[in-house]
């Protein structure tokens, strides 16, 4: 990622695609704080995020528990909601299944199984096997099958 970072900052013009590539690269290589820092710089340069940007950031919120080997704490859940709501309210992006799946994963890892289920029920699109798999995986991890 260091090489990609150097190349990125040497680009004569950084467009939305290059910003998204860097944010996605940070999230995929588990450079979680760097993903958020990059997003903040992107915003400061007046680059408007798109659906891919939001999915990368929501994934980072959930990834924190896997990478840090600790439960998702309330701060990550709040951060996830913040980005999800900002995507809709500030940037007028319509949430897709990928965004909902990231939020269900985040809520499930934090033990908020009922909130995850309620989100699925309130979705503006049809839930698919990925989103149900995420919820069921969280139920299994939390050993909570009957409470939904």
UniProtKB/TrEMBL annotation:
InterPro entries per UniProt: PPR_At4g14850-like_plant (IPR046960), PPR_rpt (IPR002885), TPR-like_helical_dom_sf (IPR011990)
Source domain of life: Eukaryota
Source taxonomy: Eukaryota, Viridiplantae, Streptophyta, Embryophyta, Tracheophyta
Coiled-coil annotated spans: none
Entry keywords, A to Z: Repeat
Native source species: Dipteronia dyeriana
PROSITE patterns according to UniProt: PPR
Protein name listed in UniProt: Pentatricopeptide repeat-containing protein
Each PPR repeat, start to end: 15-49
GO molecular function, a single term: RNA binding
GO BP, sorted A to Z: RNA modification
Keyword Oxidoreductase: no
